[in-house]
From TrEMBL, chain A:
It comes from Brassica napus. Pfam families: Proteasome. Component of the 20S core complex of the 26S proteasome. The 26S proteasome is composed of a core protease (CP), known as the 20S proteasome, capped at one or both ends by the 19S regulatory particle (RP/PA700). The 20S proteasome core is composed of 28 subunits that are arranged in four stacked rings, resulting in a barrel-shaped structure. The two end rings are each formed by seven alpha subunits, and the two central rings are each formed by seven beta subunits. The catalytic chamber with the active sites is on the inside of the barrel. Its main location: cytoplasm. Keywords: Cytoplasm, Nucleus, Proteasome. InterPro entries: Ntn_hydrolases_N, Proteasome_alpha, Proteasome_beta4, Proteasome_bsu_CS, Proteasome_sua/b, Proteasome_suB-type. Belongs to the peptidase T1B family. Non-catalytic component of the proteasome. PANTHER family: PROTEASOME SUBUNIT ALPHA/BETA (PTHR11599). It is found in: Cytoplasm; Nucleus. Signal peptide: none annotated. This is Proteasome subunit beta.
Automatic annotation (TrEMBL), chain B:
The keyword Acyltransferase does not apply. Belongs to the peptidase T1A family. The keyword Nucleus applies. PANTHER family: PROTEASOME SUBUNIT ALPHA/BETA. It comes from Brassica napus (Rape). It holds the Pfam family Proteasome_A_N. Its main location: cytoplasm. Residues 239-250 have a biased composition (Acidic residues). This is Proteasome subunit alpha type. Component of the 20S core complex of the 26S proteasome. The 26S proteasome is composed of a core protease (CP), known as the 20S proteasome, capped at one or both ends by the 19S regulatory particle (RP/PA700). The 20S proteasome core is composed of 28 subunits that are arranged in four stacked rings, resulting in a barrel-shaped structure. The two end rings are each formed by seven alpha subunits, and the two central rings are each formed by seven beta subunits. The catalytic chamber with the active sites is on the inside of the barrel. Keywords: Cytoplasm, Nucleus, Proteasome. InterPro entries: Ntn_hydrolases_N, Proteasome_alpha, Proteasome_alpha-type, Proteasome_alpha1, Proteasome_asu_N, Proteasome_sua/b.
C-alpha cells in the first residue's frame, strides 16, 4: 500500500527525499494479539513470530512488554515501529518516575497517550504501522483497550488484533464472562490461539501468555500448543484428485 | 526593609546572600487582601475577602477554578495572578487531553514554582508579585500548597496570605490539628471564621467574602451568597451596626520598590 501526498513544488528530487522518510509499507510484521480481562486483572497472548512478507523469518520476537508498574503493551504489525513506541514509552515512564511523588501513570493514561501519538502520526501521513493492545490494573481497576494505526481507540472486556478479530473474538463473545479464574482465562486464550494457529498462515506454534494484576506483570516462558492433524480428510489428501485439477 | 545598593536588580546578590527584589516581591503579596486555604482528608476550602476599589466598582476576583479538581486563591498583584491562573488552566487541560486523567496537583505546583524561579534569574524580568494558594485533589488525597514569588512552594494543612493574614493564621494555628478529620461543613465554617479574623471588628457579611470548595465527588465550585450567609448566621448572633462602610479598611500599600519601605496609606491601583 502506498501513501503518497502529491507535493508540487516543481522539485522531483526533493519529493523523492521526503517520500522515503514516511512509512509506506510494513516489512517485518507480527500477527494477532488476543487479550481478555479476568478476575485478578488482564491476560494477553501472542505468538513469537516475525514475518517478512510471506516468509516466517523471525521466531523469537517478544510482542508483549511491561510498561511501568501498571501496564502491559502488546503489538501486531511492523516490529520496528513497535520498538520505536517502546522507546517513547520508556521516556514517558522515566519522566514519570523522575517526579518522585506519589503519582504514577496508569493504563488509562498510557492508552490515551498512545492514542494521541498514533492519531497525530496518521494525520501527518506517516503512521506507526501497528495495532496496539494496552492492558493493566491500577487501584483494583482492570483496564483493557486498543489503538489502531489510524488512531481508532476503544476499551472492551476482550480485544484482539488482525486475524484475531475475525477468528478469536467470536469465541470470546460466546465464552467470555466476568470473573474468569486464571486457569479458565488461560484455557480460553489457548483455545483462541489454537484456531489462529490452524488458520492464520503467519502464526507459529510458539506462544507467550502475559498476566498483569495489582501485584505486577508476569510473562510466561514460550511454549507450544498441542495440535491435531489426524483428520480423515488429511489422510490421502490426493485421493479425490482426478486429472490435472 | 530599607533601600540599599544591592536592590536594583533581581540578578544582584547582597553580601549577606539575599536577593532583595525577590523579597520586595513577597512584600507585594502582603499588601493584597486576605486569602485563606484549609484542607481536610477529603476536601479543600479556599476563601477570600472581597475588596472593591471604591463604592462604584465591583470587587476583584481572587479565586479561580483551574480544573474540576484544582482551584487557586491569590493575593498581591491581581494581574500577575490572572496570568498565572491562565497558565495553570492551560497545563491542566493539556494533561487532561493527552492522558484523559486529571493533572496531579503536586506536579502543577512544581511547574508553577519553576516558572516563578525563572523570573528570579533573568535580568530582563521581574518576579511575579503574587502569592498563590493552590488547593486540589489527586490520587494521594487532598492538598493545599502555597506558591511564593521566590519560586518556593510549601504544603500546608491551612494557611492565610495577604493583609492581616496573621490574625487568620493565629486562628488557624489553634485549630489546624482537627482539620484532617473535619467534615466539609466544619471546614467551611472554619474558613469563614478565619476570614472574620482578618476583618478586625468589621461585621462579617456574605457580600464581604467569597468561598469555594472542592472535594472527593465534588468538583470545584463557589458557594452562593445564601449558603455563606447561613453559615455566618450560625455564629453571628446579633448583627451589629456597622461603624463605617466596608471600603474604609485602611490598607498600607507598599509603593513600588524604587521608593522603598512602606509608608503611603493609599491603595496602589494594581493591587488588591
Amino acid at each position: 500500500m502506498t501513501f503518497t501526498i502529491p507535493i508540487d513544488n516543481g522539485d522531483a528530487l526533493k519529493n523523492a527525499e521526503t517520500d522515503s522518510q514516511r512509512t509506506l509499507y510494513p516489512y517485518v510484521t507480527g500477527t494477532s494479539i488476543v487479550a481478555i480481562k479476568y478476575k485478578d486483572g488482564v491476560l494477553m497472548a501472542s505468538d513469537m513470530g516475525g514475518s517478512y512478507g510471506s516468509t516466517l523469518r523471525y521466531k523469537n520476537i517478544e510482542r508483549v512488554k511491561a510498561i511501568g508498574k501498571h501496564s502491559l503493551l502488546g503489538a501486531s504489525g511492523e516490529i520496528s515501529d513497535f520498538q520505536e513506541i517502546l522507546r517513547y514509552l520508556d521516556e514517558l515512564v522515566l519522566n514519570d518516575n523522575m517526579w518522585d511523588d506519589g503519582n504514577s501513570l496508569g493504563p488509562k493514561e498510557v492508552h490515551n497517550y498512545l492514542t494521541r501519538v498514533m492519531y497525530n502520526r496518521r494525520n501527518k501521513f506517516n503512521p506507526l504501522w501497528n495495532t496496539l493492545v494496552l492492558g493493566g490494573v491500577k487501584n483494583g481497576q482492570s483496564y483493557l483497550g486498543m489503538v489502531s494505526m489510524i488512531g481508532v481507540s476503544f476499551e472492551d472486556n476482550h480485544v484482539a488484533t488482525g486475524f484475531g478479530n475475525h477468528l478469536a473474538r467470536p469465541i470470546l463473545r460466546d465464552e467470555w464472562h466476568a470473573d474468569l479464574s486464571f486457569e479458565d482465562g488461560v484455557k480460553l486464550l489457548e483455545k483462541c490461539m489454537r484456531v489462529l494457529l490452524y488458520r492464520d498462515r503467519s502464526a507459529i506454534n510458539k506462544l507467550q501468555i502475559a498476566k498483569i494484576t495489582e501485584e505486577g506483570v508476569t510473562v510466561s516462558q514460550p511454549y507450544s500448543l498441542k495440535t491435531f492433524w489426524e483428520f480423515q480428510a488429511f489422510h490421502n489428501p490426493t485421493a479425490g484428485a482426478q486429472g490435472s485439477w | 526593609m530599607f533601600r540599599n545598593q544591592y536592590d536594583t536588580d533581581v540578578t544582584t546578590w547582597s553580601p549577606t546572600g539575599r536577593l532583595f527584589q525577590v523579597e520586595y516581591a513577597m512584600e507585594a503579596v502582603k499588601q493584597g487582601s486576605a486569602a485563606i486555604g484549609l484542607r481536610s482528608r477529603s476536601h479543600v476550602v479556599l476563601a477570600s475577602v472581597n475588596k472593591a476599589q471604591s463604592e462604584l466598582s465591583s470587587h476583584q476576583r481572587k479565586i479561580f477554578k483551574v480544573d474540576d479538581h484544582i482551584g487557586v486563591a491569590i493575593a498581591g498583584l491581581t494581574a500577575d495572578g490572572r496570568v498565572l491562573s491562565r497558565y495553570m488552566r492551560s497545563e491542566s487541560i493539556n494533561h487532561s487531553f493527552t492522558y484523559e486523567s486529571p493533572l496531579p496537583v503536586g506536579r502543577l505546583v512544581v511547574r508553577l514554582a519553576d516558572k516563578a524561579q525563572v523570573c528570579t534569574q533573568r535580568s530582563w524580568k521581574r518576579p511575579y508579585g503574587v502569592g498563590l494558594l493552590v488547593g486540589g485533589l489527586d490520587e494521594s488525597g487532598a492538598h493545599l500548597y502555597y506558591n511564593c514569588p521566590s519560586g518556593n512552594y510549601f504544603e500546608y494543612q491551612a494557611f492565610a496570605i495577604g493583609s492581616r493574614s496573621q490574625a487568620a493564621k493565629t486562628y488557624l494555628e489553634r485549630r489546624f490539628k482537627s482539620f484532617n478529620e473535619s467534615s466539609r461543613e466544619d471546614l467551611i465554617k472554619d474558613a469563614i471564621l478565619a476570614i472574620r479574623e482578618t476583618l478586625q471588628g468589621e461585621t462579617l457579611k456574605s457580600s464581604l467574602c467569597t468561598v469555594s470548595v472542592l472535594g472527593v465527588d465534588e468538583p470545584f465550585h463557589f458557594l452562593d451568597q445564601e449558603s455563606i450567609q447561613k453559615v455566618i448566621d450560625t455564629f453571628e448572633k446579633v448583627p451589629e451596626e456597622e461603624e463605617d462602610g466596608g471600603e474604609a479598611e485602611a490598607e498600607a500599600a507598599a509603593a513600588p520598590a524604587e521608593q522603598g519601605g512602606a509608608g503611603d496609606q493609599d491603595v496602589a491601583p494594581m493591587e488588591m
